[in-house]
Design brief:
Largest interface: A-B, 20 and 19 residues
Structural class of chain B: alpha/beta
Distance between the termini of chain A: 26 Å
Number of domains of chain A: 1
Number of helices of chain B: 14
Number of domains of chain B: 2
Strand content of chain A: 15-25%
Largest sheet of chain A: 6 strands, mixed
CATH topology of the largest domain in chain B: Rossmann fold
Radius of gyration of chain A: 15 Å
Order of helices and strands of chain A: EHEEEHEEHHHH
CATH class of chain A: Alpha Beta
Strand content of chain B: 15-25%
Shape of chain B: globular
Helix content of chain B: 40-55%
Helix content of chain A: 40-55%
Radius of gyration of chain B: 21 Å
Structural class of chain A: alpha/beta
CATH class of the largest domain in chain B: Alpha Beta
CATH superfamily of the largest domain in chain B: Thiamin diphosphate (ThDP)-binding fold, Pyr/PP domains
CATH architecture of chain A: 3-Layer(aba) Sandwich
Order of helices and strands of chain B: EHEHEHEHEHEHEHEHHHEEHEEHEHEHE
Number of strands of chain A: 6
Oligomer: heterodimer
């Protein structure tokens, strides 16, 4: 039985909810999994805590929430501190290494990704750092294929911004392949 | 519930409500946006006019239901959507729709209340309001979906039942179901052709057919004219009641699973809380505990006879996101069951299957008390 429980979290505006929806859609529509995606955010439009939960399985999913993630993708220090505690032993933690210091737990695998540096220097748009994080995560975990994520991006993101998001995804994949 | 031939998609509960409504032939929507129901209003504004339907953003929720009722009276398949605070405002017109037998579908996406409460968080606090929020007697139909697929299926069913029984039907969704995304099959138009035809056939305009008609919330006779004759009123209210209660076999939907004939405990839940409750049921089953699980899909009319017939345990736990609403009806229905225990959680945090499992085991041992607040 395949079952992944994932939390993607950061602050409102960093795009972690969108990254979660894209991952979920890729898994559901282009990899044939059963998927449940939920999200929560504060009342603020930007800056408040923001989180997306994704459960991917090859069986029916009943319970809709992630209590102990297998995979954590975080882009803010408070998100790391909040969710590191509840991650499963052996969980994979992907963190944005410019804003977030490495996890302190020793029973998890840690992957620091300088997503904002890559976005700034290689793409010139900070907003796509979320796709760099997602790219690195799928390259390490192989939960969904790159093609599936690109298909989901194509469904969800307007033509104007599509290409730059796909480029960012690929940069994330490249980074993971080179360093992890 | 049947699985359709159609397009596999991945969407939110609120989006699925819109898909279901459009498949049922909904051609009129009046609403006022409110969290967590706004996506329904937004999508209707986007999709309905393209299909030749009418969308009206009203000044408030009283106007929203009033407009939907008016549209239905001239033959439209009408709908509105709101959340608790707006649903409170709709109660007067809800009573009117019952009294005047107007088919209309109302979606209430529940959030924490009373008043403004917790706008972004789930609750099952409107269960009693849906049934008893309007003044006076009268019956109506209320469905509670537990998945995105059911949001689609039950919205279609709501249109079917509304037009068949000439009554408002309420879809009682909540913030969890409304905003989560899941795999869903959107049936092809041909798949639902029969349902659509049935709705079309049973829903004829009252106004605009060339004859003079009268529709009033006053007690009225068969022609629709007011009457203060006690027998006319009794006959009207009797019929409003019996047209629903005489057809409960057609209206009531309930899922029942059990591990063996006689159980030590039966878990009853509905809507989003049933997702956690069912997971707890499966965990208990795996441990060899004799347990049953009932999920109510139709909340009103309350399936009391059916519950009495299927339950075969001395202990029952009712799991809901409120301080005890459907619990009281379970208690009244199951007079012969010795222990009926409410398991309640409010505040916007979900039940966890493991806490429900622990509570269930305590109840089986006999030390659950009469109420467990998580």
């Amino acid at each position: 039985m395949v079952r992944y429980e994932i939390i993607m979290a950061g602050r409102g505006g960093q795009g972690m909810v969108l990254a979660g929806i894209i991952l979920a859609r890729a898994a559901a529509l282009y990899c044939g999994y059963e998927v449940v995606q939920t999200q929560s955010y504060g009342a603020e439009a930007r800056g408040g805590p923001s989180r997306s939960e994704v459960i991917i399985s090859d069986e029916e999913i009943l319970y809709t929430n992630v209590l102990n993630p297998d995979i954590l993708v975080v882009m803010s220090q408070d998100a790391l501190e909040k969710y590191e505690k509840i991650a499963k032993s052996g969980a994979l933690i992907f963190f944005e290494s410019r804003l977030v210091s490495p996890p302190t737990r020793i029973d998890v695998k840690k992957y620091g990704i300088p997503a904002y540096d890559i976005a700034e220097k290689e793409i010139g748009v900070l907003l796509v750092a979320n796709m760099i994080m997602l790219g690195a995560m799928i390259a390490v975990t192989n939960i969904v294929s790159k093609e599936a994520v690109i298909a989901a991006i194509t469904d969800m993101i307007s033509e104007k911004h599509r290409e730059i998001n796909i480029v960012a995804l690929e940069r994330g994949i490249d980074y993971a392949k080179r360093y992890f | 519930m049947r699985m359709w031939k159609g397009r596999v998609d991945f969407m939110q509960g609120n989006e699925a409500v819109v898909e279901g409504a459009l498949l049922a032939g909904c051609d009129f929507f009046a609403g006022y946006p409110i969290t967590p129901a706004s996506e329904i209003v937004e999508l209707m504004a986007l999709k309905l006019p393209k299909r030749g339907g009418k969308f009206v953003q009203m000044e408030d929720e009283m106007g929203s239901l009033a407009a939907a009722i008016g549209a239905s009276l001239v033959g439209a398949k009408a709908m509105t959507a709101t959340s608790g605070p707006g649903f409170s405002l709709m109660q007067e017109n809800l009573g009117f729709a019952i009294m005047c037998e107007v088919p209309v579908v109302i979606v209430d996406v529940m959030r924490g209340g009373p008043s403004t409460g917790q706008p972004t968080l789930h609750s099952q606090g409107d269960v009693m309001q849906a049934r008893w929020g309007h003044h006076g007697d009268g019956e109506l139909i209320v469905y509670a979906p537990w998945s995105v697929q059911e949001c689609l299926n039950l919205t279609m069913e709501a249109f079917r039942k509304a037009t068949k029984y000439k009554t408002p039907v309420i879809l009682l969704s909540d913030a969890i179901i409304a905003h989560m995304r899941e795999n869903v099959v959107v049936p092809d138009e041909e798949e639902v052709e029969l349902i659509r035809e049935e709705i079309e056939r049973s829903h004829k305009p009252i106004f605009g057919r060339g004859t003079s008609v009268h529709v009033t919330g006053l007690a009225h006779d068969e022609r629709g004219y007011p009457s203060d004759d006690p027998n006319v009123y009794r006959k009207l209210l009797g019929r409003l009641r019996s047209k629903i209660l005489d057809n409960i076999d057609d209206i009531i939907m309930l899922k029942y699973e059990k591990t063996c004939e006689q159980q030590d405990l039966t878990i009853i839940s509905y809507g989003s809380s049933a997702r956690a409750a069912k997971e707890a049921y499966i965990k208990l089953k795996e441990e060899g505990i004799r347990v049953g699980f009932i999920r109510l899909i139709t909340l009103w009319p309350f399936p009391e006879d059916l519950l009495r017939n299927v339950i075969n345990s001395d202990k029952v736990m009712v799991v809901e996101y409120n301080q005890g609403q459907i619990y009281h009806f379970v208690k009244a229905a199951l007079r012969d069951v010795s222990d009926i225990i409410l398991v309640s959680k409010i505040g916007g945090e979900p039940f966890t299957p493991s806490e429900l499992k622990i509570v269930a085991k305590k109840i089986i041992k006999g030390d659950g008390g009469c109420e467990v607040i998580l």
